[in-house]
Amino acid sequence: MRMKRFVLIDTAEIPNTxxxxxxxxxxxxxxxxxxxxxxxxxxxxxxHGSEDALAEIPCTRIARRPQACVLIGGLGMGFTxxxxxxxxxxxxxVQVAExxxxxINWIR
Length: 108
Fold this sequence. Notes:
Blueprint: E1 6-13, E2 20-26, E3 29-34, E4 41-44, H1 49-62, E5 69-73, H2 79-87, E6 93-97, H3 101-107
Parallel strand pairs: 5-6
Antiparallel strand pairs: 1-2, 2-3, 3-4
């Protein structure tokens, strides 16, 4: 059996700080951590139920409103955005405020 290990893919500086986010692969999954942190994961592709629910709960409440508008604070791995788009009408507008440009590149 082969051991999975974290493999650093990229580092994205956090503007106006000395911090950075690090993107790792871990087997078939991806993980985002803070550089130099305690090793805890901020988010990963394996477990994203809370990110899904963060959009599902409010978006189902406003889904029938014409031209609903939603602001998502942070792109992360895109799960909250994807959930919002699934639960809103086709005329809704969803904006994402992401402070770390590198995260946008990772999603692309």
